[in-house]
Write a structure and sequence with these properties.
Number of helices: 5
Helix content: under 10%
Mean pLDDT: 88
Low-confidence stretches: 1-69
Structural class: mainly beta
Number of strands: 35
Shape: globular
Oligomer: single chain
């Protein structure tokens, strides 16, 4: 059909690559176009991006008549990790047999679905092999699946999974991090563009942070027991652009967000043990930092107008009033051999696997110093100004895994045990705190919001839908009859929820 004319429109193919399938042509054809030509147009427009040569005034008219492009949710927790989508028409009530647009069975994996163009991307493990899956947003059909090498199988916490990190996409390419291999990028048609082996890693929980995109770079934060770092890789070739050591970071898997100040380079805000660093996306230079975080950071920060909010939780002993002061190294090293065995560690023995950072069965003075700092740190939700100073801090019922949500002037924080707190983002004042009625459970997924609704997804697959606002008004409680660990995605009046065995698309069917 290339070069043919339909009426006075000339149709030209820019590319036949499947990556442009999502942008298929104008649905407007001139009157008088024959039915055979219309059929050819409808068929062939799915194979490439078609451009229409026409007078400018007519193109403007066509653009004004076309629906807006599909909303994207291109990384973990959607646009800049906010957990918020700009859409309407979301259903409050849904379930396995209600308001289901489609359902696609999936192999195991904890990564959250992302939405880019007309595609859904996520990762799975099947028969001990690592795969990236690409699905059609419209139908849920699997368009392609690509295997990634797996040279090792790193130890994992029971709550973690080899396919935990969430991909990132830019509408033309997808970028995936498998801790058992490294980074890999695929084109929109599934062809492998590049691969960059990384690791092995030594995080006691296993790795879990997801890659994000910043301009022409892929950003990855790798916090582990030793040799933690933040790094940037070229989107086009996967080559290392910069790498910055994070010597304080000893655990956790917080995915960073971006911040663009009025002047200066785009910044990467990356929470870690005891502090949050702001890196220049151009060079990896630390531009500023904020202290006061706990020793294990797993949640993702959210950005307000001039404040970043981040919650962190280590152990119950890091709650204010429960803390203990760890003794000096020399007081614990009973035989004075310059190292501490587990039998000598006293109260610290319960944390031995977490503080023996090199896994050699002994604690060095440096490892003991990290233990002392970990015991002194406090759990809390922090509001941090963009110069690193603390605006306020809240320290009750703080989650370890679910991230905080900022939506329509209210902060929402649900902890791992299901206690929901709504707060004033300006002051930290609590509006309301309590358990979700009809959804008492554990929570690993982070809350998301759109269309005046806030969605909370429990481990047992109970989805509580609240009216946006401080009062925690429940609109619906939906049961999916399957476990859920991934964070939902939202766009274009639909919510996409991954359970242990399937991916659902809920909306107006």
């Amino acid at each position: 059909m290339t070069g043919q004319t339909l009426g006075h429109y000339r149709i030209e193919s820019k590319t036949r690559d499947e990556q442009f399938e999502r942008q298929a042509a104008w649905k407007v054809l001139p009157r008088g176009t024959g039915e055979a030509a219309r059929r050819r147009f409808r068929k062939e427009r799915l194979e490439g991006l078609w451009y229409v040569s026409a007078p400018r005034w007519l193109l403007l008219f066509v653009f004004s008549c076309l629906p807006l492009p599909a909303g994207d949710w291109p990384r973990f927790r959607g646009p800049n990790g906010s957990g918020v989508a700009d859409t309407t028409g979301l259903r409050a009530e849904f379930g396995p047999s209600k308001n289901v647009v489609w359902k696609t069975p999936l192999p195991a994996g904890h990564s959250s679905p992302i939405l880019s163009g007309d595609r859904i991307l996520l990762t799975v493990v099947e028969e001990q092999k690592l795969f990236t899956l690409c699905l059609s947003r419209r139908t849920g059909r699997v368009l392609w699946r690509r295997e990634c090498p797996r040279p090792r199988a790193e130890p994992l916490d029971k709550r973690n999974h080899p396919a935990s990190p969430t991909p990132a996409a830019d509408g033309q390419n997808v970028f995936v991090f498998f801790p058992d291999f490294g980074l890999v990028s695929y084109g929109w048609d599934g062809h492998e563009r590049w691969r960059t082996p990384l690791g092995p890693f030594n995080n006691i929980y296993g790795m879990g942070a997801s890659p994000i995109l910043a301009g022409d770079k892929v950003i990855l934060v790798c916090d582990q027991s030793r040799d933690s770092f933040a790094a940037a890789f070229g989107k086009g070739d996967g080559r290392l652009r910069w790498k910055t050591s994070r010597p304080e970071a000893v655990s956790g898997h917080s995915t960073p967000i971006l911040y663009q100040p009025g002047k200066g380079p785009l910044q990467i805000l990356a929470p870690g043990s005891f502090r949050m660093d702001a890196y220049s996306s151009d060079t990896g230079e630390i531009l500023w930092w904020a202290n006061g975080l706990t020793s294990e950071m797993k949640s993702t920060p959210v950005l307000g107008a001039d404040t970043v909010y981040i919650n962190g939780y280590n152990t119950p002993r890091n709650d204010p009033g429960n803390q203990i002061q760890a003794p000096a190294f020399a007081d614990v090293d009973a035989d004075q051999d310059g190292r501490i065995a587990r039998a000598e560690a006293g109260d610290a023995a319960r944390y031995f696997p977490f503080i023996d950072l090199d896994r050699d069965g002994w604690l060095t003075p440096a490892e003991w110093k990290t233990y002392q700092a970990s015991m002194a740190a406090e759990n809390g939700l922090l509001a941090i100004r963009m110069d690193g100073s603390i605006r306020w801090k809240y320290q009750r019922a703080v989650p370890q895994l679910p991230s905080t949500l900022l939506y329509r002037g209210v902060l929402y924080m649900i902890n791992d045990g299901g206690i929901l707190t709504t707060l004033d983002p300006a002051t930290g004042q609590v509006f309301k705190q309590g358990r979700l009625r009809g959804a008492v459970d554990n929570y690993f997924a982070s809350p998301v919001a759109a269309d005046g609704k806030v969605f909370f997804l429990s481990l047992a697959g109970i989805v509580s839908v609240l009216r946006a606002g401080p009062e925690q008004e429940i609109l619906a409680v939906n049961e999916l009859d399957d476990e859920c660990l991934a964070t939902p995605a939202i766009a274009d009046g639909r919510i996409y929820i991954r359970t242990r065995s399937a991916l659902y698309c809920f909306g107006e069917s």
